[in-house]
Amino acid sequence: MAGMTLDQLRIFLAVVEHLHFTRAAEALYITQPAVSAAIQNLEQEYGVKLFHRIGRHIEIAEAGQLLHLEAQKILDQVALAERGLKELNDLQRGELKLGSSLTIGNYWLPEKISQFKRRYPGIFVNCTLANTEAICEGTATGLFDLGLVEGEVKSSLKISLEEEVVARDKLVIVVGKSHPWFERTEILVTELVTVDWVMREPGSGTQQRFEEVLHNWGIEPRELNTIIILNSGEMVKAVIERGVGAAAISELMVTKELQLATLRAMRVIDNRNGSHLKAEIVRPFLKLKHRQRFQTRLSKAFEQLLILPFLDNSSSDEGAST
């Protein structure tokens, strides 16, 4: 069974409207034999009579009355679907699925989403927050249209994911008021092994970057006295404010606390080999997308919003020391 087509339904409705094959053909700008063939094919396909032929006139049959009601509903629904697809293509409606690591999602991304919503109010933005590892996995499996992370992408996923730097962030080493370092403004790299540390969990972009920098400074992460491991930067910040250990944390997360002087950020001085160099911990914010999956226009529009401001300012950014 071939089934009815939308063209057959349109022809049928025209015949119902005019109760005349020739007039229906003229209204549709097709030939009268094409109209007759469409109606005949429907009747033969389903073994019913849609119209009674009475001399030179036609009347709608019982089966035709039933199809009339349903055909109009079908074509109305098709029109709505076509409109929806057109609006989606014009960025008037649709859903953007984002995945973001926690620091980006809590402190950098909200303003970007707000800008996007002001420009495209009909788009629903669905944003999931998780650590870098989970966001990379979700982007690779198609759970997210775009992923935003501040950590390293696993080598096993690099074949699937395309990476692009859209911003840069700085990690700062902070302590609370009751910490012995609070009255100081700088610490030496060689002093890092002398205090307690509060760390983010494995898989966190913050933790990945801090461990990478420690290696660059000639320190194995296991040499630090890690007393607490937490899966939230907010929890790390709250613990540090109470004077428990030191932590490496995004500068974005502690702007307010540094202004209020409830936390103190330490300048790190690389004193190895007799030098006295300021050592900054700079890391990129990466936009991820699948190399082969279809990308919608709204996903491309959000990409442009992320990239353009960064490209305008990147030429004036200072390079990282580490």
Shape: rod-shaped
Q: What letter string, H or E per element, gives the SSE order?
A: HHHEEHEHEHEEEEHEHEHEEEH
Largest sheet: 9 strands, mixed
Secondary-structure-derived class: alpha/beta
Tell me the number of helical segments per DSSP (H or I, 4 or more residues long): 10
Number of strands: 13
**Average of the residue pLDDT scores:** 89
Helix content: 40-55%
> Poorly predicted ranges (pLDDT <50, ≥5 residues)?
315-321
- Proportion of beta-strand residues: 15-25%
Please state the CA-atom Rg, rounded to the nearest Å.
32 Å
Measured between the Cα atoms of the first and last residue, the distance is 69 Å
Protein model, in words:
The chain is of the alpha/beta class and 322 residues long. 42% of the residues lie in helices and 25% in strands. It contains 10 helices and 13 strands. It has helices at 6-18, 21-28, 32-46, 62-89, 102-119, 132-140, 205-216, 233-241, 255-260, 297-314; strands at residues 51-54, 57-60, 94-100, 123-129, 146-149, 161-176, 186-188, 196-200, 225-230, 247-250, 263-270, 277-278, 281-290. Strands 3, 4, 5, 6, 7, 10, 11, 12 and 13 form a 9-stranded mixed beta sheet that branches. A two-stranded antiparallel sheet has the order 1-2. The longest helix has 28 residues, at 62-89. It is rod-shaped, with a radius of gyration of 32 Å. The N and C termini lie far apart (69 Å).
